[in-house]
Design a protein that fits this description.
5-stranded antiparallel β-sheet; 8-stranded antiparallel β-sheet; Uridine Diphospho-n-acetylenolpyruvylglucosamine Reductase, domain 3; binds flavin-adenine dinucleotide
Length: about 475
Amino acid sequence: MKPTELTSKLQGIVGQKFVSDDFAVRWSYSMDSNIFDSINPTPPAIVVRPANIEELQKILFLASKTTTPVYVRGGGTDAGGSRGERILESILIDTTRMNKIIEVDEASQTVTVEAGITWGKLNKEVEERGWRLGFKGPYSGYSSTVGGSISVQSNGYGSARYGVCAEDLMNLKVLLPDGQILQTGSAVNPAARRFYRYCIGPDLAGIFVGSGGCFGVIAEVTLRMYPKSVKAAFGAYGFKDYESCQACYYRWLKTREADHIAWFAEDGLEVNAPELSEDGYISLLTFAVEDQTPELVDARRRLLEDIAKEEGGEALDSEKYAKGDWVYRFELLPRWAAKIGQWQWNCHMIPAGDALDDLKDILSLLKAFKSEIAKYGVKHSTVSIAHKNAGHVSTSLYYDQSNPEVVSFVKELSDKYAERAITKNGGCNYWIGKMWYPYTIMRNPVYRETLTRIKKAIDPSNIMNPGGLALPTDLG
Ligand SMILES: Cc1cc2nc3c(=O)[nH]c(=O)nc-3n(C[C@H](O)[C@H](O)[C@H](O)COP(=O)(O)OP(=O)(O)OC[C@H]3O[C@@H](n4cnc5c(N)ncnc54)[C@H](O)[C@@H]3O)c2cc1C
């Protein structure tokens, strides 16, 4: 079917205002937040913005009948390059009008939301109802959506204690490529509430976690809630050697008592807190705790402080160096990027006790490119954010996006970074996308073949983000 015919059929589903094949509109959806899309922007054929699951279902019926590729977009903050090859012919479904809280269920301590809700909105509304989320969202939480985060297995705020986004996931309602509605977990039983993930049969929700919209459209998500916090406390410690910092970081993680732990390495201090570098510090370690009683907060804070002192950390101004990262959590990176340039991250996961080896190796890679980094005016900041038994290590590269030479250098550096981090230091990617697949999915034939079989079974015409998982594109 030609785009013009499809456009009018889609207008019949969602109304004229919420469909467009206009050049300017399509181009405004031509990239997500990653360097692959900066280099090669790919506009979809049509953009559609459904308001509810009924409209979403009709869109998928139409796409399936006409075998038109579909790309789902939440906040568009994807940082790994998850767009597949056929985006130019696709219908892009923007989920951000599907942004309501469906139910706060006190009995099961869960909240069910439409997948296009942002983390910013969800946190606010849950807290207004006297609860809190465990995982509160990625650093991009004012624009990224819950559905997008499940689809790229996000981690971030709250992960030190509560784990990554999928660890609080209870149920999904998913539109399969043919428009059928799949429920997972307890909701498979029509007589049950949506309250539990691991029951009834195999965990089908897991297939959609990290699937980059390649198996279906996540329409509704049920997450666990926790009692609302009444108090928060923060700690910031400077270290003059890396080994003491690693020891403290590891022990803090092991307690599971910090909600958030961040380790800023020497290059991060130079960019974000140069006064600490001048004082001889090469690492800054921060924590945030919050809880339902002041006594619990104080006990947890003291435990973390004692560990930091035992490991030789020097107490710094926690209001200045730790509080802002928690309180203004979804603003931090966008603010830095606004000041010092476009942002490219290379996040990967590493065991808690191995963070230092990886971090040192990454710093040595960056040092090998010192003269080019200076020549192209790139700033970098290496951090590790804790996730229960693991941490992510990542370097933010801030660069001038308007200069093609700089962009091409940053792409080359990112590729070298990804290869080194994944093949040498015992880590793995958690985001999906082109940045990582050459080193993981493409090198594991049995895993790739199993994914291919699942894809064929769920999406035989291969309409959902074809190529998005680096699987063969001619599945159909
Ligand atoms: C400034 C900044 C900070 C970031 N910080 C973090 C961080 O701390 N931790 C982290 O993990 N990531 C981070 N990211 C990466 C990214 O923001 C997150 O992973 C985020 O969760 C993606 O959500 P989104 O709604 O923007 O997804 P999108 O970019 O819209 O989509 C991501 C992928 O999921 C698919 N998808 C989206 N919605 C659905 C749906 N409803 N059903 C099926 N598939 C869907 C898309 O097709 C795409 O493949 C950051 C990005 C930026 C720009």
